[in-house]
Amino acid sequence: MATADITTDAHHHHEQTFWSKYVFSTDHKMIAMQYMFTGMFMAAIGGFMAYVFRMQLAFPGMEVPLFGLVGPNDYNALITNHGTIMIFWVAMPVLIAAFGNFLIPLMIGCDDMVFPKINRLSYQIFLLSAVILLISLAVPGGGFAGAWTAYPPLSAQAQYSGTALGSTLWLVAVALEFVAFLLGGINFVTTAMNSRAPGMKMYDIPMVIWMIVIASVLFMASVGPLIAGAIMLFMDQVVGTGFYDPARGGDPVLWQHLFWFFGHPEVYVVLLPALGITADIMCVFARKKLFAYRTALWTVFGTGILSFTVWAHHQFVAGIDPRMAHIFTVTTLLISIPIAELCFIYIATLYGGSITLSTPMLWALAFVAEFLIGGVTGIFLGASGADIYFHDTYFVLAHFHYTFFPIAIIGTFAGITMWFPKMFGRYMSEFWGKVHFWGTVIPFNIIFIPLFFLGTIGQHRRIYDYTNFPELSLPWMQDLRQLATVALIVMLLFQFIFLINMFYSMFRGKKAPKNPWRANTLEWTTESPPPHGNWPEGLPEVYRGPYEYSTPGRDEDYWPQNVPS
Amino acid sequence: MRPIANTRSAAGIPTGRLAVWWVVASEIVIFGGLLASYVMHRLAHPAWAEQAMHTNVWAGGFNTLVLLTSSLSAVLAHKAAEEGDGPKAARLLGYTMLGGAMFVVVKAFEWTAEIQAGYTITSSTFWSFYYSAAGLHGLHVIGGVVIMGFVAAAARRNEELHRVELIGIYWHFVDIVWIFLFPLLYIAK
Amino acid sequence: MSEHAHEHPNYIKIWAVLVVLLGISVLGPLFGHPVVTLVTAFGIALVKAYLVAKNFMHVNVQKRFVAYMLLTCLVFMALFFFAAAPDVMKSEGNNWYKPEAQWQAGAGTSEGHGDH
User: Fold this and answer.
1) Please, are residues A525 and A540 in contact by the beta-carbon 8 Å criterion?
2) ipTM score for this prediction
3) Cis preceding linkage at A516, omega within 30
4) CATH ID of B23-187, from 1.20.120.80, 3.40.50.300, 1.10.3720.10, 1.10.10.10
5) Do B45 and C52 touch (CB under 8 A)?
6) Closest approach of chain A CAs to the CA of B112, in angstroms?
7) Confidence grade of residue A321 (pLDDT, cut at 50, 70, 90)
8) Angle, alpha carbons A104-A109-A114 (nearest 5°)
9) Whole-angstrom distance, CA of residue A350 vs CA of residue A382
């Protein structure tokens, strides 16, 4: 696949052979790059899919440039795989795998992951899963078209879906992806638990590491039932069992439970790393200590536990037991409390700081602001009464894009712009970084705010052509659809600025010193980029917490973790 | 070759063992999800009791005995490895592997008889659960035997003796899963 | 390396107890009483699992958090069971029913499916 090429030709030295350095490396930094560039490649595909189906919605029946005519089945396959790719092949690999791999050993002060070969295996399985997913789009019958949640019977029986091979390959790809992240997650958690630098105690660990580790734990504890469910779905598809067929004693709602028991903690699996990245960035660029580190940490633990108790709010209209709907409404509304608390903690961190509006800081601020909209609109959907009206409308769609876009896109750009000097030893252009920032965030809002309005008016999701529904194809509604589509195209075009900025800076950017942001955490105490083994002259020791900025009585406004007092 | 990270132990548990505990935790939720799904279906379908009559309690019981015994030799291997006696640990692990192999052979005969009697995986959802749950467990047994082969080969040369305990923990977990599968699939009628 | 400090229990004795328990769980159904079967089958399975986890896996001599994390996973599974079971155990809906489930459960009377 082309993914392998993208990951490998990024930068080139000649100490080792090409294959051992770029393809079969066990170095955590190289594996992080492999995950990051594979994730970016998949993001390009997912973004292109969004462009194609948004064009169909805005201009029904038009021949879409670079794609052609969009048939109804193409449309369903596109929206299904857009969702699958963006969550499993973009948010997960970039936020957790790439940043986890790059940051965990560097920020806790050790030379590599504890199991480098398992780490490499994890990436290889992930790459295989991506390849299988891409193949599934091209098989006879087309790619899987039963939505990313894969509810049976649509996903289980080929006579309904019409994509016998496509659905099975999709399922296999997702299952392999889970295996890859289980292997990776065990590595992350074990490394962070056991391999910290001498002196680094529980409350000395940078927030981003905590968040990635908690996210990995949530993933491991929630994905099991879905793996079991995927085995049953696979049997239904391939062997012909009836696990999800009520006529044969099975139950389709079981899949929804199994899926969302994983699916809702999964929201927090991707949210937490993004929250961690923004926490670290805010402290550095506000030159302030993180407000209430311990409270924040225990809040996140609480969020993690609570996230296992909310899943059935996705199923309020699925015919679930109404008494259960009450319980899940309460738990869902409860979980907004710790998240709101974290937002206040971030605001308190910023308050009174000397804020530099650099590119990473802009992304971090935008993350909190945009995620807030996603969170607040979620409260309507968590209440079963309102959800019965809103369910499966564009209100839901806009809501979760206001959560996932800040997480997967804004959070990722925040992380990349923050750690780019460490990854490649050079600065990115601040000017073009800011152009890209505004060119992404403004169109993002123009895409999704109209969709909230369309949703409240009752526009249903997963409809191929609204002209078949006269009450949903009034001129002003079509105008809003076109507005959203045009904004999407603008946003996608602005991403080229980022790509050019990144690849140009990788080779020609201004050289960055060890610690360009004057930050405290350990990764800034080694060379940029860090050599193999991370600290060739000896691993660091830790003497204090990660956020000692502007400490009274010190000449410098930062106090690195490894400096003896 | 081995990173320094691997030699640290800030949590107070050796790295390999910590990782195996996480493997066990993630396996608990895999089997937990499958068995919870089975139990709720089983409670909803009293008619399944009649189909469960056709499972072979004696084969299942014998297999339980085999797995319990193989767990015993695995834990004795761990003890031998702790005492530094690699060859003895390897021999005991060999018995465990033999037990695993015997388990799979018994299973093969059992399934053959059932399939010949007409109870296939698509006969009813009870049989679908029966073959899927036991099959997933069987794959864990086979995987365990294969990994154990590598561990035993190294232990014979007195290398990587700590791995004897690690594979043992995994094996005992597979044993425990069977301890629950046996009454769920065979005894409850 | 706390585990080297602990005594190895008599493994053969524990194995013998496990085998006796296995015998009881196989023989339990012969009484023909459902409650006895339930206790001998699942009660004994719990005891056996406890014995294996404690003595063979040595959960008891690990750092405390190991037991907590395994228990947490079990609690999550119980949570999953109790939240999903009311839906999955329903034997009929608006447009569907489960023939097998109704065969004995009173041929699908219209009340009491979700209640138990």
Assistant:
1) yes
2) 0.95
3) no
4) 1.20.120.80
5) no
6) 17
7) confident
8) 60
9) 30
